[in-house]
Amino acid sequence: MEDRDSKILARIMERKEHNPVYSAELEKEFKISGSEIRKIIRAFRRDGIPVANSKTGYYYARNFKEIEPTIVDLEKRTLSMLSTISALKKNFEKSQLELF
């Protein structure tokens, strides 16, 4: 883990559910974009680090109750993406048949 990423994780770990750190704060402090912050958060989560999110920011989940809304949100987004993929494939297959 890069030194910068360790510092970002430390900032997140200081926060709790009622007081998350805003992405904009991290962007400004570390001089990186929001998409880079999201990439780092994704890597933390893939390493099993329980970084939870709320509508206002990120915090370190200390129990399952705190991380559960994040898990539900990720599951909903995954299902939405799968639905979009399915519609695109179906439409593409249909349009290909119409070409012949």
Can you offer a commentary on this structure?
The chain has a single domain (3-99), classed as Orthogonal Bundle (Arc Repressor Mutant, subunit A), CATH 1.10.10. 68% of the residues lie in helices and 6% in strands. The protein is built from 4 helices and 2 strands, in the order αααββα. Strands 1-2 form a two-stranded antiparallel ribbon. The N and C termini lie far apart (52 Å).
For the record, the CATH architecture stands as Orthogonal Bundle
How big is the Rg?
A: 18 Å
CATH superfamily: Winged helix-like DNA-binding domain superfamily/Winged helix DNA-binding domain
Which term fits the overall shape? elongated
Specify the number of helices.
4
Q: List the helices and strands in order.
A: HHHEEH
Q: What is the arithmetic mean of pLDDT?
A: 91
The fraction of residues in strands falls at 5-15%
CATH class: Mainly Alpha
How many E strands? 2
Key features of this structure:
elongated; Arc Repressor Mutant, subunit A; 68% helix; 100 residues; mainly alpha; single chain
Topology:
Layout: H1 3-13, H2 23-30, H3 34-46, E1 51-53, E2 58-60, H4 64-99
Antiparallel strand pairs: 1-2
Concise synopsis of the structure shown:
The chain is mainly α. The protein has helices at residues 3-13, 23-30, 34-46, 64-99, and strands at 51-53, 58-60.
